[in-house]
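Please decode residue identities from the backbone states below.
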């Protein structure tokens, strides 16, 4: 069994930042990532552009140079990949952590490939793995997807986009511009206020001119092979349909946190129990970093405001080590 000062679960930008900080401060570490480098970013839509500017996505003060002020997905992949390779970070890719058990002198970590032990564990798993399901008939049909990748696939098709978040709006606009017949089904009375400010006027104008159809205050009640059934303020309607993009957001893996012994609030926010000054949870030596800290409030933490977690956590670990070593 390989032993480390720190095992970092998740190889996204914040997990990478934690690895950089651990290496810089002389701590042994390994990053375990179930997919490729920055797996969540890799699964973003091909043409996605970040809300944040490049300098706000930088980690460890390593410059992020891109063509425009707000980088695109491919530029972010290049940036974080180069950080990993240039700094020779100890990262194991396509290795999924199965369980983390608290033991007397730290933790035992089991992945689908190896067993590890560590004095500390940092969980930086984000929230992009589990889509918020609609729980309606037909959601399991092959025509339904909770992830959007490339607009070309939907050209010439009748596409329903469920939701009005950034991902839903981007998908609707891109697919319409590639020739899809797009209909948006939106539970709220308007397009979400958190939609990127340079995109929101575009989608509103396309809806107002009729290029993209939209049903507000509406919900899909059933998905069938050739149609969807929508509950609207004017009553139930049937719409011809080829594909459905159910972009209704994602949920952190709360079951994984609970199995490790991390306490969650009992309300709908499901906030994990951790110390904001150290990022340590109610389980000694177990830390949280990045978006996972926000529970269901996934809009509260981003790369730009959680990249500081790496320094906070490593400082706490070194402080604890120093306290133990003192006679």
């Amino acid at each position: 069994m390989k032993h480390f000062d720190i095992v970092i679960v998740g190889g996204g930008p914040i997990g990478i930042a934690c690895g950089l900080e651990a290496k810089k401060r002389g701590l042994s570490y390994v990053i375990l990532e179930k997919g490729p480098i920055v797996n969540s970013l890799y699964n973003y839509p091909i043409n996605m552009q970040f809300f944040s500017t490049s300098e706000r996505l930088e980690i460890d003060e390593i410059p992020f140079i891109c063509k425009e002020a707000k980088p695109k997905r491919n530029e972010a992949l290049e940036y974080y990949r180069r950080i990993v390779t240039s700094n020779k970070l100890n990262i194991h890719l396509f290795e999924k952590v199965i369980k983390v058990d608290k033991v007397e002198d730290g933790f035992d970590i089991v992945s689908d490939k190896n067993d590890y032990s560590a004095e500390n564990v940092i969980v930086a798993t984000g929230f992009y793995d589990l889509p918020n399901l609609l729980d309606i008939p037909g959601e399991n049909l092959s025509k339904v997807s909770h992830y959007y990748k490339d607009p070309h696939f939907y050209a010439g098709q009748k596409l329903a986009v469920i939701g009005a978040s950034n991902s839903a709006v981007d998908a609707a606009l891109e697919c319409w511009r590639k020739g899809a017949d797009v209909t948006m089904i939106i539970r709220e009375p308007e397009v979400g206020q958190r939609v990127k400010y340079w995109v929101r006027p575009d989608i509103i104008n396309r809806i107002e001119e009729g290029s993209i159809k939209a049903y507000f205050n509406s919900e899909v009640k059933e998905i069938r092979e050739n149609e969807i059934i929508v509950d609207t303020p004017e009553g139930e309607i049937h719409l011809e349909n080829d594909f459905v993009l159910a972009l209704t957001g994602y949920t952190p893996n709360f079951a994984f946190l609970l199995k490790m012994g991390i306490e969650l609030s009992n309300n709908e926010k499901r906030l994990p129990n951790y110390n904001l000054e150290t990022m340590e949870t109610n389980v000694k030596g177990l830390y949280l970093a990045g978006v996972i800290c926000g529970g269901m409030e996934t809009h509260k933490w981003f790369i730009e405001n959680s990249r500081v977690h790496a320094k906070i956590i490593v400082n706490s670990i070194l402080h604890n080590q120093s306290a133990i070593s003192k006679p």
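Observation: Helices lie at 13-24, 39-42, 73-86, 166-177, 200-208, 254-259, 303-306, 309-325.
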